[in-house]
Design a protein that fits this description.
Number of domains: 1
Strand content: under 5%
Helix content: over 70%
Order of helices and strands: H
């Protein structure tokens, strides 16, 4: 019975830490996505401003 309760406890700890890991990955992914979108917008504005300044 001790082995069974140890196994259940170990599995519960493993799954809970896995959920934290997945949450961290999704948060990092969201922040990275926002950063990439902002960089693309800045690049587009930069390119447009370069073409407008030539005229």
């Amino acid at each position: 019975m001790k082995n069974l309760s140890f196994a259940i406890g170990f599995l519960a700890i493993s799954f809970l830490s896995g959920c934290d890991l997945i949450t961290g990955i999704f948060k990092a992914g969201a922040y990275t996505g926002i950063f990439v979108v902002l960089v693309v917008i800045v690049l587009i504005v930069f390119v447009i401003s370069k073409f407008r300044s030539k005229d």
